[in-house]
Amino acid sequence: MSREEQALILLQSFLQAAAPYREGHLVNSIKISSEYDKLFIIIGGEPAPYAAFTNEPWSSLNWHGRKNPNEGWVERAIKAATPALQKMLSGAMTKEEYDKILKKQKLILEDTRKRRASEIREYYKIGE
Predict the structure, then answer these.
(1) 26: burial class by Cβ within 10 Å (0-12, 13-18, 19+)?
(2) Rounded to two decimals, what is the model's pTM?
(3) Which of 23, 70, 79, 126 could covalently link to 121 via disulfide, CB atoms 3.0 to 4.6 Å apart?
(4) Who contacts 93 (Cβ-Cβ below 8 Å, separation ≥6)?
């Protein structure tokens, strides 16, 4: 696997860990794709057509002047990933460091999933 592919996997893991999480559709929509021998990350699409609205300012009157609490999550994830991406692309990152970063991001996402499941159980009084 090339450094560029590894860097995209790292970025994907940071985006998934930072994505707003309600039912998981947005997180599951963050995919690495290719076209004409170019790799890129897709956020949204059919599984989460609302994806752009999770990152952008709310302008609709429906929100009554409230600010989008998730606004800028993509930019924050990229900023958080930048040092790791720079190290990966420069060739200075070891396999152990790479694996440790991926594991950390997956743990963050798993904690989010567990927290959301707990909130749903509590809301619906499941298991009582």
Answers:
(1) buried
(2) 0.90
(3) 126
(4) 84, 87
CA 127 to chain centre: 30
Q: CA 78 to CA 73: how far, in whole Å?
A: 9
Helices (H) and strands (E) in the chain, counts: 5, 2
Contact 47, 23 (CB under 8 A): no
Q: Domain spans of the chain? A: 3-124
Cα–Cα distance for residue pair 18/120, rounded to 1 Å? 20
**Cα–chain center distance at 89:** 20
31, β-bridge pairs: 42
CA 50 – CA 54 distance, rounded (Å): 7
CA distances from 98 to 27, 56, 60 (A): 21, 30, 41
- Phi then psi for 35, rounded to 5 degrees? -155, 130
Asked if residue 36 has pLDDT above 70, the reply is: yes
Half-sphere exposure of 122 (CA within 13 A, CB side): 6
Q: How confident is the model over 39-82, as pLDDT tens digits?
A: 999 999 999 999 999 999 888 777 777 888 999 999 999 999 99
